[in-house]
Amino acid sequence: MKRNKQINVKRALALAGTFTFLCSCAKACLLPFLTLYFRQQGLTPAMTGVVMGTKHLITVMWCPVTSLLSKHYNKRRTVIIGCLVCSAAVALALLLIPSADVNTQSAACNVSDRNSGPTQGAGDHRLMSSVGPTTLSTGTRPKINTTANSHTGVTFPAKTPGGNKSAPVVMNKTSQHDNKTPHPQLSEAVNNTLKEPNISSSVVFHTTSPLATLERNKRSKFKSEEQPEQDKENHFDFMSRLKMMYAQHKLFFLLLITVSMWEFVSAPLEWTADDGLYEYLDFADASDRYSSTRVWGLLGAACGVVGVGSLVSQLSCLIAGQISRSAVHFFCYAGVTALALPVATLLPLYLNKKRDKANGLLKAVQLVRASPRALLCTVTTLLAGMAGSAVDNFLLWQMQDHGSSELHMGLSLALALLSQASFPLLAGRLSKLLSPGRVLAVGAACLGLQCFYYSFLWGPWAALPAQVLSCFSSGALWWAVSVQCEDVATPGAERSVRRVYSTLSLELGSGLGSFAGGFVVQRFGLEWLFRGVAVGLMVWCVCLPLLQWKAPRQRRINYSRLLATEASEASDSESEQERDWLDKAMEDDKSNNNYGRRINH
């Protein structure tokens, strides 16, 4: 049969777009909200950063190995279907892990469902942001509220000028109560001190030394009787804290093991399906249409976050018994993954045994290392990945502290994805104004501005304006990276070079950023994490143009123009040879004619 009957490119692209849409939608239903679930269960920011960082590092090491093995044994479809089934099962197994504290669920729901007035809401939000995420994990919010009230009760009289009159008033009441007893001089002394404003309360206590001594004796006796009870309370408090720490660390290790298993079974999905589809389109001479599937991934992710955010925000705190509404994220992930299974059985795949992906990745690393400008692009993507991990892991924490519900979070994330998908419409005009190196610096600077804006959120909808900048941060940055890949890569190696950049940014940079970001939030708070990330990116954006200017330029080889030049040179040489032959023939003809004329004469 002919090739055009065996391969239907439009059908292959439709199936690939549908599969990418469903897989991205399933991930968006759960992964952006996963750190919120960890916070609700009782993990601290440092523990959350360790779990997410381990997840990214497993992807860096495990994806190339599984992709190579699935190609070597020709088991790509089996790996894809196995990843879908096992990832849904392990994700649902996360719901079986109990939380570290019972009060965390109610505290998290109170933050999400707060419908109080503006003044009260602002005070609560400031309190939550000053306390930090650990209050929800340890369940100490009621204590913090009481201390805040007691603190206001203490500082309010201090602002008034009559702060020293509280003690004389109490003494005056006791003296009036004891008027029946023969102490007329004592009552007169107290009244005189109350009338004179320049006499302090110490003088009053000095003049009322018999009553003060009696009060001190009563207080000392009361404290001596109360001391054993306070020791018991301190002992019980220490034991309760110890049990809470044990439960929290137990929860941390259980979540770390389960999330690691989840990443082991779900990480090979994207690389395996991507390789099979690309080789299929390359076999059909349609590899130039491969990039269209990326847009479907962004659209699927936007639909996922909006759909699950609006659904969860309409539910009550507990949907059935002790099942939290956060479990809806896991159920939606499993449901959309099940919808992708029939498409995976029909997904067009091809096995090209002539290509060795291991050598392709090593060659791509060598190409990147040999170019100074490619190394600068690598550092930029690594820093962008670290900054992106701070946004992915802790932006929803910051929004939750300022009263945002899942609906606000879903709309905010969807706006960022849609603005990122719209950048190709502006890429043509932007490339005429700025070079790819400057576009790379502009993208990193816009990401820094976003992080700086996130540190000053004030309400539920405050994050929406900054999400529009994702068109120029993530969109512009990846456009500049793709142009850099074309400049560096040799023919056929563009995709491998692009995969090197994506792995460094999305996985290695995100892993390192998750580890560092968790400890920064634990020590300094959410606001200072975003401010520190913004300052780091701005400093690099100032240094990047200078380093690009100092870096030596490597001119790109245009192979089509080189072939055309070789063809023109070959034609010129042939024409010169023909011209030489004709000249020789004419000279020979002239010489023969002259020789004949001489003979005739």
TrEMBL record:
What GO cellular component term, any one, is given?
Answer: membrane
**Is Transmembrane helix set as a keyword in this record?**
yes
Using the record's annotation, list all stretches that form the Major facilitator superfamily associated domain.
Answer: 19-531
Checking InterPro entries in the record gives: MFS_assoc_dom, MFS_MFSD6, MFS_trans_sf
Membrane association type: Multi-pass membrane protein
Q: Where is this region: Disordered?
A: 113-165, 569-601
Q: What is this protein called?
A: Major facilitator superfamily domain-containing protein 6-like
Which UniProt keyword terms apply here? Membrane, Transmembrane, Transmembrane helix
| Compositional bias ranges of the Basic and acidic residues kind | 576-591
The protein's matches in PROSITE patterns, at most eight in alphabetical order, are given as: PROKAR_LIPOPROTEIN
Task: Kindly list the residue ranges recorded as spanning the membrane.
Answer: 78-97, 251-269, 295-318, 330-351, 407-427, 439-456, 528-547
Name the protein family: Belongs to the major facilitator superfamily. MFSD6 family.
Q: Which Pfam families match?
A: MFS_1_like
State where composition is biased (Polar residues): 131-153
Localization? Membrane
